[in-house]
Structures are given as structure tokens and as C-alpha cells.
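WARN retry 2 of 3 for item q-0093 after timeout on previous attempt; input resubmitted unchanged.
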Amino acid sequence: MGFITDKQTLDDLNILGRYKKNSIFSLFHRTVTVEGSWLLEKMFNNPLTDVTSINTRSDIFSFFERINISLPFNSDEFEVVENYIRTPESSIRMVATFNITKSWLLNYIVGEKEYPELRTGLEKTIEVFARLKELIKQVEKESRGTHYHEKAKRILALLDNKYFDAAWQCAGESPLPYKKVLQLDYLFRSLLNDPIEDLLTDIYELDVYISVSAVSRELGFVYATSLEKEEEVIELKQVYHPWIPGAVGNDIHIDKDKNVLFLTGANMAGKSTLMKSFAIAVYLAHMGFPVAAKKMSFSIHEGIFTSINVPDNLAMGYSHFYAEVLRVKYVAEKVATNKQLVIIFDELFKGTNVKDAYDGMVAIVDAFSKRNGSFIISTHIMEAGETLSNNPQLFFKYLPTVMKGTVPAYTYKLEDGITDDRHGMIIIKNEKILDILNEAN
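OK item q-0093 returned
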């Protein structure tokens, strides 16, 4: 079984959504081909749980980031190529010749458009593949010693096939003579149609590598190093949210000896953003994708679950608190399977009174700390942290608030310990809500 998660987590982290504002998918979605876009989405839906596969993919992305190339065609050109290649033709040469001759005659006699459309598709295919061949020559040369080299060699071997010599000699020629159309159409749509279909798949993959590596190069991301599951560690240097370039970065180190980060801080101090930044980095790292950090290494985890924006469910009659309880129960059931998971809870039990929230927080965190996995749990209830301070599996960090007169400011920089920063009433007073209400009377 692969990497596991659920819709709540994907929504919390805004992972998916090609048209969704600020989704992580949309950040990397720069593919030229439609099928490349679908391949990218497939990668997003299927993070990896194998060290070799993750490191291999990261190495390939890193290679393409270094050589900084672009596909030698645009989306409209490639759509013409795909439509041409995937218009079926007989593998029997005599039948294929008859079909083209018929369409040629119909065009000559009554102006039927099938033949000129086929010829245009063939001409564009030759032009695009000729450009691709020159690009792959460069890639094959520069990829030696990388995980992409064998793939580059295979693509180049196909494009260097002697059967294609006649096609490359015609690159840029338009309109192609009837006899050339007969010869070359049979080559592309019959004789070598199967390897050309494989080539299209390679192009979609190449499209993703170029797209993702371009984002990484532009935004200064890094590639994480994956370690075996038994290492039980996640180490991030200066991690930040990928949609906030130039944001304040933070170091986070979680391992089997200290597997629960207990996070405190006032509202607006940055707790939710920090936890999302961490979780997104973990998710992308398991895809072999670049992450928004200065450095990252991590042992394989088998899934990730978050509870950051838990909605109530009025249709089911669920209050916000009961929805939180059900979410914790669901995650607890996953943790109880002893899979190595990343678990993140933001403000556990904020939908109930302070006493129940305190009791629930202490009990749940203590139970989680005895389980396999990596946990980050935030709260306003500093007393819960004090009660849990003797638990050897926990370590405590907070995001501070700095008062500038009566105005709170935030450093967004993690510090050791527990904070009792509570500035809600100050913010309420600064916004003059009470003055507004009193004036109304």
C-alpha cells in the first residue's frame, strides 16, 4: 500500500486543484502538454514510499534544473502532432496507400479537406520531432552519470533510427509532395507507430521534469534526501510556505527520541502557517519534488493526516466540537495501525470550554507520544504544556509576540519553550469594537 492521506488533509494543505487559487499543484503546473498536466496530477495524487524511487526522481528533477532547457514546441503545435499520430491508419501498406490516395483525389476533385489536414499534421510532426531530436542530443550528452541518461539514450536511439532520415531531410518543407506524404505517413502512423506512442509518453514525462525543475530554480527550492523508514527522523532547515517566497524560515527536527512538537503562540503568531509549511514539505518530499527550505532530510513515512480547518456539519447535526472529536477519532484509528505517519493538530478541541479542552489535550497528546510517527500539536492552552512537560517524547517551541506599545508584532521565528502570550483583548481594544458599540447607545 502506498502513501495514505485523506481529503481533509489535502484541503487543509491546499495540495490539489489545477484551478484553485494558491494550491500547491497550481504552483508547479507549467506543463506544455495536456497529458503532461495529467501526469503531474497523478504524481500529486500518489506520493512515493520507496527511498530509491524518491531519490531517483529528485535526482532527475535536479538534473533538469541544472541544464535549464525548454520544450522546443508550444501546446498548439503539440496538439497537432498528437491528433495526427493518433488518427488511425492501416498497418498494411497497400491499404494505407489506397486511403491516402483516395483522400488526395477527393481533395483534388471536390476540395475535400482530409488530405491537406493530414499533410499539415505530418509536416508539423516532422518539424516538432526534428527540433526534439536536437534537444535530446544535448540532454543525452549532459545527463551522463544521472538517472535520466538511459531514458535519454533510448529516446535518441529512436529519433536516430535510419528510417527517419528521409523525414529529417524534409523538416520545414511545406507543402510536402504527394509521394513524400505516402512514404512518411506510413512511417509515422504504421511502421513505427508503437515506438512513437512510447515517445509521446516520454515527452509527457519530460514536460513534467522541465516544468517542476523550472519552478524550483526560479523560487530557490531544494531537493530533500530520503532515508529508510527505520531512521525515524524529519529534519528541515529554514522551511517556509512555498506560496510565501522570502518568508521567515524555521528549523524543525523531529526524531524517535522527541517525536512530538508541542507548539504554542498567540493568534496571528504564525502557528498554522508553520505547520502547513512543514506538512507541505513532507508531502512534496515524498513525491521527490523540491521543497521550500534550505535543506531537508527525512525518513520514509507512510502517510500524513492533519486537523487544521475542521468544519462543523449542520446537516448531520454535528457541532464544531463533535466534528473535532470525530476527526481525532479517525486519525487515532490510523495511528493505531502502527504505520509511521505524520500527524498535525492545530488547536485541539477549540470548539469546547477550556477545562474540557485542557483535559482532552493532555490525554490525547500523551497517548500519541507513545505511538510511532511524527506529531505537531498546537494550542493556546499553555497549562496543558506545563502538565506534559515531564513527558520525554515531547519538545516545546513557541512563536513569540513582541509588543510595540499596545500593538502586537510577530517575529514568526521559533523559540524554545512555552509562551503565555494572549493578546486577544488587546486586539479587540485596538480595533475599538467596544467604542463602536458604546457610541451606538
